[in-house]
């Protein structure tokens, strides 16, 4: 059975993952309001991915004899000064999530909870991709700064992202 302090730390991360999704839905709504619907599509896919992270953690706690406990979620921002400012915040947020996952891993290691260490390795790897993908958008937005045609083309590229349900969650949602 999972130790209470490890369960509490995973539950705190569940809250952070839900906040991530909530913030990405908020950002998607802002992009919709300025007619950049490819960006909003990309962010909604990102928000759905965050919800799969929540379910992975929730399912893991359940398997270990623990329980996911939902707490209040902070309100995310609602407005940004520019697409670039918004995606700089996405990238900074993902870097912060990486730190949270690292701290969670530290807790699991300190408790010699090898099952949780093994479970969290997926998230450690995932954060490499999360940082890389969001930084790539920041860099592209910098390239097209002040160029409306370039921004329009980038918006179309962002629209091509598809949500892929992780196979292990296929029957859960
Ligand atoms: Fe669940 Fe974007 O980290």
Going by CATH, what is the homologous superfamily? Ferritin, core subunit, four-helix bundle
Q: What's the order of the H and E elements? A: HHHHH
Main CATH class: Mainly Alpha
Q: Structural class, judged by helices and strands?
A: mainly alpha
Radius of gyration: 17 Å
The separation of the N and C termini measures 26 Å
Shape by Cα distribution: elongated
* Strand-residue proportion: under 5%
Any overview of this molecule?
- The chain is mainly α and about 170 residues long.
- It has a single domain (about 5-70, about 80-165), classed as Ferritin, CATH 1.20.1260.10.
- The chain has helices at about 5-35, 35-65, 85-110, 115-145, 150-160.
- α1 packs antiparallel against α2 (about 35-65).
- The longest helix has 30 residues, at about 5-35.
- The two termini are about 25 Å apart.
- MU-OXO-diiron binds near residues 17, 50, 94, 97 and 130.
Concise overview:
The chain is mostly helical and 173 residues long. 73% of the residues lie in helices and 0% in strands. It has one domain (4-71, 78-164): Ferritin, core subunit, four-helix bundle (Ferritin, Up-down Bundle), CATH 1.20.1260.10.
Which helices and strands occur, and which strands form pairs?
Layout (H helix, E strand, L loop, with lengths): L3 H30 L3 H27 L19 H28 L3 H30 L4 H11 L15
Helix pairs in contact: 1-2, 1-3, 2-5, 3-4
The protein binds MU-OXO-diiron.
């Amino acid at each position: 059975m999972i130790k209470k302090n490890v369960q509490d730390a995973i539950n705190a991360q569940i809250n952070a993952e839900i906040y991530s999704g909530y913030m990405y839905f908020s950002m998607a709504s802002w992009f919709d309001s300025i007619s950049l619907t490819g960006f909003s599509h990309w962010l909604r896919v990102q928000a759905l991915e965050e919800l799969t992270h929540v379910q992975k953690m929730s399912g893991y706690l359940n398997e270990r004899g623990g329980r996911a406990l939902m707490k209040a979620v902070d309100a995310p921002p609602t407005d940004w000064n520019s697409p670039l400012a918004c995606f700089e915040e996405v990238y900074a947020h993902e870097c912060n999530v990486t730190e949270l996952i690292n701290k969670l891993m530290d807790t699991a290691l300190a408790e010699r909870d090898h099952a949780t260490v093994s479970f969290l390795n997926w998230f450690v790897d995932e954060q490499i991709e999360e940082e890389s993908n969001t930084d790539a958008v920041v860099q592209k937005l910098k390239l097209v700064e002040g160029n409306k045609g370039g921004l329009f083309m980038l918006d179309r590229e962002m629209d091509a992202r598809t949500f892929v349900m992780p196979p292990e969650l296929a029957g859960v949602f």
